[in-house]
Amino acid sequence: MQFSSQSWIIWVLSACAFLAVGQRAFDAIRSLSTDKTAFLAFPLTVLVPALAFLFLATRKNMLSAEGVLMQVGTMIQLLLIISLPGFALYLALGFPVVFLVIELFETRAPAPFRTWIKTRVIA
Amino acid sequence: MINLDLPEPLMLALRWLLLIGPICLVVFMTFVRRTSTRAKIGGLFALLYGVPVIFITHSIAVHFGWWRYGWDVLMLDGLPVDIIIGGAILFGPGLYFTFPKVGPLMICLPIIIGLHATVFSSLEPLVYAGPFWFAGVVFVFVTAHIPAIYLANWTAEDRHLPLRCALLAIMTGGMILAVLPALIMQAMGGEWALSERPIWSTIVAALFIGLASVVGLSANQMLCLQGGGTPIPLDPTKRLVRSGIYAYVSNPMQLSAALIWIILGLYLQNVWIVAAAGMAWVFVQGMVRWHHRNDLLARFPSGWPDYKRNVPEWVPCWTPWVPAPAKLKIRDADLWPPLRRATGLEIEIGNGPPRYELAEEPRAFTGLEARLFAMTHTNFAWAVAAHAALLVVLAVKHVSALVSRPIKAHP
Predict the structure, then answer these.
(1) Which residues of B touch A94 (CB under 8 A)?
(2) Of the candidates A3, A43, B88, B330, which lies 20 to 30 Å from B136 by C-alpha distance?
(3) In terms of CA atoms, which chain B residue is nearest residue A102?
(4) What is the DSSP string of B358-390?
């Protein structure tokens, strides 16, 4: 059996990521006339997470429902890393928390809540 | 040697190119060469090996003044993170995917001589070359880049499992001991300042870290020897490993990492590194358990649940859990006293060299190895001591076998 996320979730997250990358690109170009920090940091802090986001967004057919939740959780974390450069290192170091949240959701969350979320997230 | 005076915009573009270029190369080569899944895993392992080893070797280079980096952007302990990652991508999956049939030495030698030797000293303000920079470049290639490409090659071709596991152990050690603490201190504050700390505390910390490392390294060794795979689930074991250190604790590698962070944090007087042990717990709860449910339970539906019921995750039990007894054939005079109290070990007194056989495993061990493996049946303390000796004994045996039968890049 294979699982996929709802396409609207991927589209909404992708639109947000596109806007965040655009904003960071604008900041990088603007910084060229001053200290160049944002420009030099752009490939690692924006393009690399954006490529990872793109890779995840194009993944289809996970082997488990948990896999879909992990895909969506990781995309949200990457989106936060791109959008909040001041917190990017903390968010990157806290990546295992994403998987813990999903594990707790799968094993500890009340069944009705779990079902309600899954029917909305998983296609 | 060519001494150029390159304009700053070109240097800015070069810094971008050092990360973007390798990424584009990998993506392009993956499509052009229709890289196999196995080769992609090899490329990923090469990248994972490259990041910590390049970080450590460049830290040594900066410490000894072989070179230093300009532009105080994305710096981690004086090293630009984007260049480290770009280097790990280029001298890992990048060059391996580009030249999959060429030996790593033949790939790297022209780069060392043709590129580094000619333009390295012209790259200011990106990098400022100091004295002995060429020796430093050779050092980085020998320890980081060439082994990374070998790792990709061997993983893709599923060869030299012990060497692959050794390189992955170096990678894990580098991540645990160098990269993650450096990132934590970058985020939360703190400094290494190793030379300013008392010698006695450094020695005590090194001893305890060494002891904690034995737990993780022996787990790696057991997965290689008895599992026939690596610790990373992308290149998994073929058999369920429940013996050795795994008979005492089911997460020995995560336990080892957590202990190392606690010891390192106490040594560096940094509460955030101590707290990283909590992140090891989070990792187990979030990622490892998911892997257990979806991989190990699916592949070993009878053995895995039985093992999980009987072996604790974090606090090792004092005596091992052994589902089917192993056999030790040994002369009475050679029987070490602790072995008389061993758990799950059938001792047969007989002539000839000692021979140890696990009930479920295909291979047997003789001589000193047999006695050391038998010692892992006594209690946790003896098991750690025996595994520490096994790490050395089996590594020496394997290396001496390689010396008499050198590695070939391609069969």
Answers:
(1) 279
(2) A43
(3) B286
(4) -SS-S-EEEHHHHHHHHHTTT-HHHHHHHHHHH
Give buried/exposed letters for B48-57 (b at 16+ CB in 10 A, else e).
bbbbbbbbbb
Beta bridge partners of B405: none
- Give dist(CA B8, CA B16) in Å, integer: 13
pLDDT confidence bin for B13, thresholds 50/70/90: confident
Residue with tokens 């892997």: B291
CB pairs under 8 A between A and B: 74
CB B111 within 8 A of CB B90: no
Residue B104 has pLDDT above 60, yes or no: yes
Tell me how far apart the alpha carbons of residues B367 and B106 are, in angstroms, rounded to a whole number.
40
CA distance B260 to B281: 13
pLDDT for residue B128: 87
The answer to whether A37 faces chain B, any CB pair under 8 Å, is yes
Q: In this predicted structure, what is the pLDDT of residue A13?
A: 94
pLDDT number for residue B1: 56
A15 touches chain B (CB under 8 A): no
Q: Please determine, for residue B122, whether its predicted confidence score (pLDDT) is greater than 80.
A: no
Cα A69 from Cα B75, distance rounded (Å)? 33
> Does the beta-carbon distance from B12 to A40 stay under 8 Å?
yes
Token digits of residue A80: 């936060």
Q: Is the dihedral of CA B283, B285, B287, B292 positive or negative?
A: positive
Residue type, B383: A
User: B79-80 and B326-330 as β-strands: parallel, antiparallel, unpaired?
Assistant: unpaired
Among the listed residues B203, B199, B208, B189, the one whose alpha carbon sits nearest the alpha carbon of residue B273: B189
Q: Which amino acid is at B401?
A: A
Short-list B78, B61, B77, CA closest to B69: B78
The residues facing B127 across adjacent strands are: B69
CA dist A114 and A104 (Å) reads 11
Look at A93 and B82 and tell me if their CB atoms are within 8 Å: no
Residue B2: what residue type?
I
What residues of chain A lie within 8 A of the CB of B12, using their CB? 36, 39-40
Predicted local confidence at residue B408, as pLDDT: 56
Please choose, from the candidates B77, B98, B82, the residue with its C-alpha nearest in 3D space to the C-alpha of residue B26: B98
Separation of alpha carbons B146 and B142, rounded Å: 6
Q: Rounded mean pLDDT of B324-353? A: 90
DSSP state of B158: T
Identify residue B62 by its one-letter amino acid code.
V
Q: State yes or no: cis peptide before B125, omega within 30 of 0.
A: yes
Is the minimum CB–CB distance between A86 and chain B shorter than 8 Å?
Answer: no
Please give the share of chain B, as a percent, with pLDDT higher than 70: 97
Please determine, for residue B411, whether its predicted confidence score (pLDDT) is greater than 50: no
Distance from CA of A62 to the nearest CA of B (A): 12
Interface probe, candidates A37, A44, A98, chain B, greatest B C-beta count within 10 A: A44
ipTM over the 0.90 cut-off: no
H/E stretch holding A90 reads helix A88-93
